[in-house]
UniProtKB/TrEMBL annotation:
FMN binds at R60, I61, V62, L63, L64, K65, Y75, T76, K82, Q104, Q139, S140, W185, R195. Pathway: Cofactor metabolism; pyridoxal 5'-phosphate salvage; pyridoxal 5'-phosphate from pyridoxine 5'-phosphate: step 1/1; Cofactor metabolism; pyridoxal 5'-phosphate salvage; pyridoxal 5'-phosphate from pyridoxamine 5'-phosphate: step 1/1. It catalyses: pyridoxine 5'-phosphate + O2 = pyridoxal 5'-phosphate + H2O2; pyridoxamine 5'-phosphate + O2 + H2O = pyridoxal 5'-phosphate + H2O2 + NH4(+). This is Pyridoxine/pyridoxamine 5'-phosphate oxidase. Its EC number is 1.4.3.5. The keyword Oxidoreductase applies. GO terms for molecular function: FMN binding; pyridoxamine phosphate oxidase activity. Substrate binds at R7, R8, D9, Y10, K65, Y122, R126, S130, R191, L192, H193. Pfam families: PNP_phzG_C, PNPOx_N. It comes from Aliidiomarina sanyensis.
Amino acid sequence: MSLRDIRRDYEQRQLNFNDLNPDPFVQFQQWFDEVIASEWNLDPTAMTLATCANDKPTQRIVLLKDMSADGFVFYTNYQSQKGQQLLANPNCSLHFAWLPMERQVTVEGAAERLSEAENTAYFQSRPRASQLAAWASQQSQFVAGRDKLDAQYREVEARFSEQETLPLPPFWGGFRVRPTQFEFWQGRAARLHDRFRYRYASDNWVLERLQP
């Protein structure tokens, strides 16, 4: 089968102006709750994070760990590629692809580092193995092989073997993306999808329909 012949039509739902909450955070929570309640809730917190530094855009999947009117939170190694890019240019985009439900959400905004207290509280809530991995991995740096990575993990495991609680790595923590724009996309038949954009202007969210 040719790639050009792989297609499906989207006919599950429609999205109208009156269906949308005037607050995009409330609207996001409603859609997220529907994903959680559905049979398609595999990795519902997975989101594509797009960053750009030195005119080079990059993307990767990260996991949403908190969401409120203050923004969307995820955690990483601050010395990783995405960490360094966000510190150089905080403007970024998040993309949620809930394709079995024929829905997508895009969030644009600026990222800021979380406080040490916020980072510590979350880090200590993680499974111990994940805490050890955060200490062991020099994220985005070259490694000679899997054996080397596993050895780094064993070294960290031995180092903290006598400690019940691991300290927060100084190079690890979270970012909060404070949105300035949302787009909610609902697939429709014949590629005439429903698209609505919320943009923040003059201390208010402006909601408008976009052509597909």
